[in-house]
Design a protein that fits this description.
The chain is an all-alpha fold. The chain contains 16 helices and no strands. The two termini are about 15 Å apart.
């Protein structure tokens, strides 16, 4: 008789609940911060270069590049450090660094800064802070990936991945949605103050998580040998490699969200409130997926489910791109959030079940390079293609490329199409 699926298996572990709250708060703050920065950069660009809309788009897209360059360059080194260090203390250090960056934003968006600095100087400082934030993100991704595996037993990894990914998805869309409204209600500076408060709360709550053992048997291993072994493991484990590559390409070409401020202002003709609704639409999809996925066995036929999710992700992007009707755009973004949520959950399940404990930091860093960094590269790709093709064609192009990637993967890697993680789950029970 088949064992009944427990949708709350991971939530029965107290530390995991604190972890989810901390992750939600931090991602909420970070994603809120990113949108505030986007809005501020666009406003500054319009004041400095009032007639050059192409340059506005390029500057908007360049935010992603400013963050992704340090994230990519530091990721592998960060993965090595994570596998060598105690995870709780490393997490505290990451959050503290995040807090310092947020304080920098809080200062540079203050009335004092605008009274004493030129708009061009403020923009330069914003990009510097974005760059520093990219360094922090290089460490925090593999740290979180490694920490969650030490909080819950292996038998509940798939359920933990579902809750963790859903929490991330929920926060990453609720944060920007709230930012859209808070910018309209209280302004950029006070909105950044909310971000500061969120980070401080997250830093306090981590005290409820105990220190964890270091499971890497090769403490003190030379860094280049460590990095080589980590990369070899990823490239030899085809299920991990294909899942990362597939999601990387989809996320890269699915960066239409970066253009939402422009679509809100110039195509859909709505203000910051409408911008907030557009940002909130993926949140609704994410919430529904979060509730539904805990009752689903996404480990069964995981490969096929991941391919279907990314296919419909691409469809939603195309619909958003061609729509000039506000509520149709909202629906398309709802589907965007829902399908992206499924994709993220399945990818995290694959990574958690297929990665040994001693490689988690390095695999997490590769995941940051493949998927995390592709978010920012996707922002730049959207800005660049929008400047070259126009915003509508750029978004449609991204959706088409996403669908073509799914088709290529399904044909090229039939074993991945048939991937089923049920056996891996049972082995770890």
């Amino acid at each position: 008789m088949e064992e009944k699926l427990d949708p709350y298996a991971a939530l029965r572990f107290k530390e995991f609940n604190f972890f989810l709250v901390i992750r939600f708060i931090l991602v909420f703050g970070w994603s809120m911060q990113f949108i505030i920065v986007e809005w501020e950069v666009l406003s500054l660009a319009e004041s400095i270069f009032p007639e050059n809309k192409k340059l506005h788009l390029l500057l908007l897209g360049s935010i992603g590049i400013a963050e992704v360059l340090p994230a990519i360059s530091m990721a592998l080194f960060a993965g090595h450090i994570v596998d060598q260090r105690e995870k709780k203390m490393l997490f505290i250090q990451c959050i503290t660094a995040f807090l310092m960056v947020a304080f920098g934003y809080y200062f540079i968006t203050s009335p004092y800064a605008y009274e004493n600095y030129e708009n061009s100087q403020i923009m330069i400082w914003i990009y510097i802070l974005v760059f520093i934030g990219g360094i922090v993100r290089a460490f925090i991704g593999p740290t979180i990936f490694s920490l969650v595996a030490l909080i819950v037993p292996k038998r509940v990894y798939p359920n933990a991945a579902t809750w963790s990914s859903s929490t991330w998805q929920l926060a990453v869309v609720l944060g920007p949605a709230f930012a859209g409204f808070s910018i309209a209600w209280i302004g950029v500076h006070k909105s950044m103050g909310i971000v500061l408060g969120a980070i401080i709360i997250g830093l306090i709550l981590i005290g409820f998580i105990k220190k964890k053992p270091i499971l890497n048997p090769k403490i003190g291993e030379p860094i280049f040998q460590s990095l080589r072994e980590g990369l070899n493991f990823v490239f030899k484990t085809k299920s991990i490699l294909v899942a990362l590559t597939l999601d990387m390409v989809a996320v890269f070409f699915g960066g239409c969200i970066a253009l939402l401020p422009f679509f809100a202002k110039n195509i859909l003709n709505v203000g910051s409130e409408g911008f907030g609704i557009l940002r909130a639409a993926p949140a609704v999809g994410a919430v529904i997926m979060m509730l539904a996925s805990t009752h689903m066995n996404l480990a069964e036929n995981a490969g096929k489910k991941l391919l279907f999710a990314i296919f419909f992700f691409g469809i939603s992007i195309i619909v958003f791109g061609v729509s000039d009707i506000f509520w149709l755009s909202v629906f398309a973004l709802f589907m965007y959030g829902l399908t992206d949520g499924v994709s993220m959950i399945i990818r995290q399940t694959i990574l958690q079940l297929k990665t040994p404990d001693e490689f988690r930091g390095r695999v997490g860093s590769v995941n940051s390079i493949f998927v995390g960094s592709s978010n920012e590269l996707g922002v730049f790709e959207s800005g660049l293609t929008a400047a070259l093709m126009g915003p509508i064609k750029a978004v449609v192009f991204g959706g088409v490329m996403t669908i073509l990637t799914v088709g290529f993967t399904a044909i090229k890697f039939p074993t991945f199409r048939k991937l089923d993680l049920t056996k891996d789950m049972n082995e770890n029970a």
